[in-house]
Write a structure and sequence with these properties.
single chain, 462 residues, Rossmann fold, Ribosomal Protein S5, domain 2, 3 domains, seven-stranded mixed β-sheet
């Protein structure tokens, strides 16, 4: 008698496995996340890609000197901001994962990209496991998509999807979403960790052997991660995350992994009635509603990938009515904020222990680089002393625990972005000042410590 496949319990949050059911996952600590699935040995599972294509051959080593480069193989999506995040365009045979919360715009950007590609002569196969062809048609008409050359396949079976892709041989494939496509070789529900792993693996094989770039979308969990995050991020070539607050019109696509380009690159879009519109100058977008005569507001120059960006950092310092002062932040790490407050108290003698400190990065943007330290400290001191920072002043620099101002990378690119937006004064680390004095119309001030920052921030010596 053939041996029956054994069952295992798989965590739907992290992919951890257990021989028996447990109330709490031992890997990630999530409660009630273990689901029973049928375990099959690898020899029992045939590759769907191999079944469809039938062209797989035994691997042979290739000399490095004989491998052809792929720089010329890139082609544009037709959306400049999206090309920036991808590293310059689409690479043949790549598998790109786009994650984000439901309704943030993943399907919208995919349809818009498909329209651009087909208008340039490329064929696109759009596989939808969530919407019918009529629903996709309605969405496309709302976005103003003509759709000539766009092929739509509402299907959730992996074998059928790969069979149709093999028959049509499109130049780009879009799968929306990865959680709805399932393989009948895995006895678990669509969207489970095992199904997501199997489907993504077969799509990767198909993309590599056919040279067809594949885009897949994935919904994030309540913790902000894609289902089966470690598995998917390991398999795919590029991971893009959609960020944005539903109360703001702008959306940000951030690259957290990219085998063909730089990571932490971002593309900024504005959500309109006709879809997502690229924003060519994000700094202007985030500063357009900045108050001119308010205290507690500072402009910091940050870098997102290779792009300099000016953001408004807002702080509110008020007396606490409770025994313990509160520290609340939005868009900046709360622990880092507490550390900077401690530096202010120790090095400048300002007593903030009894005050509530609220910090916000305007526009819903999240910044996590050390160069934003100086902007955070400037905003907190401005609110605490109720002194206004001159509106044409921008700052950047990392702050150490001894109160020193440390240099940062790409200072010239940051300074030129501030110059472009009309800022007249820059307070930067002294080590970054060299070579920036030639900026026309901009006064560059180099500082070494927080004491120097205070002197120049509120124009004490001028």
């Amino acid at each position: 008698m053939a041996k029956q496949p054994a069952s295992i319990y798989v965590c739907q949050n992290c992919g951890g496995q257990s021989r028996k059911w447990l109330g709490q996952c031992t890997e990630c600590g999530e409660w009630n996340s273990l689901v029973e699935e049928i375990f099959r040995a690898s020899s029992q599972i045939r590759s769907a890609a191999a079944t469809v294509g039938g062209r797989l051959r035994a691997p042979e080593a290739i000399p490095f000197t004989e491998i052809e480069g792929q720089d010329d193989a890139r082609f544009s999506t037709g959306i400049e901001e999206f090309d920036r995040v991808l590293g310059g365009g689409i690479v043949a045979g790549s598998l790109v994962l786009i994650g984000g919360s439901p309704g943030i715009g993943k399907s919208t950007i995919m349809l818009q990209m498909a329209e651009k590609l087909v208008s340039s002569g490329s064929s696109v196969l759009y596989i939808s496991g969530e919407e019918s062809e009529q629903q996709i048609k309605m969405r496309g008409e709302r976005l103003g998509i003509s759709g000539g050359g766009l092929l739509v396949l509402p299907e959730t079976d992996l074998i059928s999807v790969l069979s149709e892709a093999e028959r049509l041989r499109p130049q780009v494939i879009i799968v929306d979403s990865i959680q709805t496509v399932a393989s009948d070789k895995i006895e678990s529900a669509p969207g489970s960790v095992s199904q997501v792993r199997e489907v993504a693996g077969q799509l990767m094989l198909f993309a590599k052997h056919s040279g067809t770039p594949v885009f897949i979308t994935g919904h994030i969990t309540k913790d902000g991660a894609i289902a089966g995050p470690k598995t998917l991020e390991h398999i795919v070539d590029t991971v893009l995350y959609f960020e944005g607050d539903r109360h703001h019109n702008h959306r940000i696509i951030r690259a957290t992994k990219n085998r063909f380009g730089t990571v932490n690159e971002i593309g900024v879009f504005e959500m309109t009635g006709s879809g997502l519109e690229p924003v060519s100058n994000p700094s202007e977008l985030f500063l357009q509603e900045r108050p001119k005569e308010a205290t507690g507001s500072a402009v910091a120059v940050c870098m997102e990938g290779t792009r300099p960006m000016l953001v408004e950092v807002q702080a509110l310092v008020s007396g606490s009515k409770f025994g313990t002062a509160r520290r609340m932040t939005q868009g900046f790490d709360q622990n880092r904020t507490s550390l900077l407050i401690a530096v202010i108290e120790k090095r400048l003698g300002l007593q903030l222990a009894g005050d509530d400190v609220f910090l916000n990065v305007a526009g819903g943007l999240e910044i996590d680089e050390p160069a934003a330290d100086l902007g955070v400290i400037a905003a907190i001191i401005s609110s605490f002393r109720n002194l206004q920072i001159p509106p044409e002043t921008a700052v950047f620099g990392e702050v150490g625990l001894t109160g020193e101002i440390r240099g940062v990378l790409q200072a010239e690119a940051r300074a030129r972005e501030a110059q472009t937006l009309g800022f007249k004064k820059l307070i930067i680390p002294e080590s970054n000042k060299k070579g920036l004095e030639r900026l026309l119309g901009v006064r560059v001030v180099g500082v070494r410590s927080l004491e120097d920052v205070i002197d120049h921030l509120f124009d004490r010596n001028e």
